[in-house]
UniProtKB/TrEMBL annotation:
The gene is secA. Keywords: ATP-binding, Cell membrane, Cytoplasm, Membrane, Nucleotide-binding, Protein transport, Translocase, Translocation, Transport. It is found in: Cell membrane; Cytoplasm; Membrane. It comes from Amycolatopsis sulphurea. Monomer and homodimer. Part of the essential Sec protein translocation apparatus which comprises SecA, SecYEG and auxiliary proteins SecDF. Other proteins may also be involved. Pfam families: P-loop_SecA, SecA_DEAD, SecA_PP_bind, SecA_SW. This is Protein translocase subunit SecA. ATP binds at residues 93, 111-115, 499. GO terms for biological process: intracellular protein transmembrane transport; protein import; protein targeting; protein transport by the Sec complex. Part of the Sec protein translocase complex. Interacts with the SecYEG preprotein conducting channel. Has a central role in coupling the hydrolysis of ATP to the transfer of proteins into and across the cell membrane, serving as an ATP-driven molecular motor driving the stepwise translocation of polypeptide chains across the membrane. It is a peripheral membrane protein.
Amino acid sequence: MALISRVGKRLRRIIQRPGSVELTRYEGLLRAVEKLEPELEKLADAELTERAEKLAGTLDGASTYTDDQLVEICALGREAARRALDERAFDVQLLGTMGLLTGHVVQMETGEGKTLAGALAAAGHAMRGRRVHVVTVNDYLARRDAEWMGPLYALLGVTVGWVEPSHAKDERKDAYDRQVTYGAVAEIGFDVLRDRLVTTVDDLVQPAPEVAIVDEADSVLVDEARVPLVMAGSIDHNDADEEVAKVVRRLRLGLHYETDTDGRNAWLTSAGASVVEKSLGGIDLYGESGSERLAAVNVALHAHALLTRDVDYLVRDGKVQLINAARGRVAELQRWPDGLQAAVEAKEQVTATDRGEILDSITVQALLARYPEVAGMTGTAVAVAEQLREFYRLEVAVIPPNTPNVRTDQQDRIFASPSQKLRAIEEEIRTVHETGRPILVGTQDVAESEELAEKLAKADLPCVVLNARNDAEEAAIIAEAGKKSAVTVSTQMAGRGTDIRLGGTDGTTREEVAELGGLHVIGTARYPSSRLDGQLRGRSGRQGDPGSAIFFASLNDDLVLSNAPDLPEGIDSDSETGEITDPAAHRQINHAQRVAEGVDLEIHRNTWRYTRLIERQRAELLEHRDKVLRTGLAAEELEQAHAEKFAELKEKLDDTERLEQVCREVLLFHLDQLWSDHLAYLTDVRESIHLRALARETPLDEFHRAAIPEFHKIIPESAVRAAKTFEEAAITEDGLDLAEAGVRRANTTWTYLVHDNPFDSDFEQTIKRVRSMMKMKKS
């Protein structure tokens, strides 16, 4: 059996199948780790720390690890964890540690101890003299894990900190000065953006990136990859066209407007156009004079027809708050591009937020590409192995569970309609609840979770609801989902990163719950990705616990209607319950999911194709900006352009250093402003690029033709503008009157996330044409 296993591993490696990293080398080191345990157990805490520091001395500056060094790191880490955390790392956790130390994404099942494996790997990299960022999916996990693992790091002589939104600049600097820093991907990314706008070296908070260990790697590297992080500066109030919003609010689907099957586009019918034109004073929407109102109508219609309250966003505390589609939680800093954001605010009749000018942005892929070394860990890596290889050049290593998984995954139950499906889910919950088993129900969105909770309450089946409305309490709620008789209704993967222990956090009824069958997981619909299905199932069966999982689905679920609406003929359902047992129904839902996965992958690729050029341009610009920031280049250029005024200013200030800073601020202002203008220009180009596709030109090539020459104007133009400002600015006691000369940076800045291109993409246009042709052929 062992021989077959080894042959299988080698075969997978040869044919480069996902999850093909060879683990035999690491498995062979585990016995050596175990042999060191008695020796290390005899050491006092100070002696253990001293030994770790001695190891760090031999590792300092090394580019790779020898087998002996991997053994020593794991042995010291196991002993430190035993003392500091009362946890002896399992062999599989040490395998995970070695996989992370050697630059892989390790797949470890839920409850198998990824947090400890990641901490040991972070400590190992720190001993090698590398600064390590442990990148998490949210701020709660960053702080929890840094504090939880703190005593472990201390015993190994490694310093640790974390960053979170409430931290001031000095606190951030202190956290990044530690050898290991935990932070949510957005928070680390926003610090990168802030650093790109500083005008003095002292204001930088992040050191040069070296090693990133990504927790929940599939979520961070795949789900978040299409969502750029944006730094904006305040311009003025963001007023939507209230009159247009009122008109659009009265329009009716099928009469005044239509939408496509995948819910991405809406357009006026001739009747709708007539109503809008008449309501707006008899204008011609499609004439030259009506073009601005037409744009406002289209955005308002998108907000009215395609964005749904309690699904795409919440209205809370008088504000529109977006819901993160990947995790079902409020994305506190996320918003749509300004026109659409304002339209939704007008639709909901809430106060409009300020309009922003984008100063800079960065994608998750570009953020992680800054690190020379990247590794990751997650429970579902194999499903996205090809994407990890394609976009990040990362290979997956599958770590076997410490205890075999005994969870029972039941076959999906399929129904003709969502209402019939909901009745069956209610009955399933009732039946299982009567046994005393805890139940976790995964829903698709806030509205569905609250509708189900209301039905359960009426049926005398009380439950706890976890969705975007109470996401602050999610860790506490999800931690108790394993208590006897508990029923927890959760949107998607809220609470990810928190174990569900049978019997709850105190574990008093653990054995009783285990005897009853453990946690029962119910999915109310299949997700757009099989990986997300697997994540929900994985909440049950932790560390060999008993458990079960089942998904309910309908042929009228959004997944099917959006991706495989043409159902095969002859599928019959039970006349009373509506349940369908025909295998064709299962095939149809699986097909719809594969289509959805394919669309998401192509959108990811499409986004990356466009942003790769932008990232290359940004890197070139940042190299020049850093030179301006750290040297006297700005002063040299301005002295050359205006020698007399430079000499006059130098005499007035009587400080060479102060003079350099004044010159630096002038040049950096224009450099940053031109980059902001360039980003706005590229956005306009990309949004209109599909028109070039209709002319049978390659959109990406056209994008490059437009973007490249404009970029090459930035650095020379910044020098010209800086010289002009320097010439025109009045000399005062404090130097130059920069504000009067127009050098005014945004008085307020903020950070947020924005979905990349929420309107039609080139690929979506192609998909629609293909679907139309298929329908024509069938008819």
